Amino acid sequence: MLRKLYDWVIAYSARPSAPWALGIVSFAESSIFPIPPDVLQVPMTLARPEKAWTYALIATLSSVAGGLVGYAIGALLYDSVGLFLINLYGYGSKVEAFRHAYAQYGHWVILLKGLTPIPYKLVTITSGFADYSLFWFVVLSLITRGARFFILAALLHHFGPVAREFIEKRLGLVTLGLFAVVVVGLVAAVYLF
């Protein structure tokens, strides 16, 4: 089943609608969706390495746009939608601590958490809730999300054929490793958030 899914994503990457799917997933991941855009960016870039920079740009811009939705949820709808999403991911009891961290280290929180597998939607929603500067939120989000997606694009562009061969030979192990990274990110968020 995993092989079929991987083959489908690789084949889908050649379709004209693939960049739209990446944009939608990147947008949604920044505000409500639990799946990171890397699950599309990696196979799409492996399938079409010449589009690595385009895919990174799409992921960056749509992630920041989705982050603005997350920010709005935190600023305008925290008591209903924002709190529901925060509680859904199990971080409801830690929001006040995160809000206080913003008062002291807001720039660093966005920069560091935007690069990690810690769900970015937590940063976006809490940024709005904490009334963090919208200007700085956008600037820092562009930097951190851009760094994340462009570093991934650079690695895949440079090591693409080797990475693709490695992934295809060890698909189960790679999937398990990615799952472990996401779980570690979620656990780290519990302790750092």
Automatic annotation (TrEMBL):
Domain VTT: 52-155
Cellular component terms (Gene Ontology): plasma membrane
Transmembrane annotation, as ranges: 52-78, 134-159, 171-192
Domain of life: Bacteria
Pfam family for this entry, one: VTT_dom
Keywords from the named record: Membrane, Transmembrane, Transmembrane helix
Name used for this protein in its record: Membrane protein YqaA with SNARE-associated domain
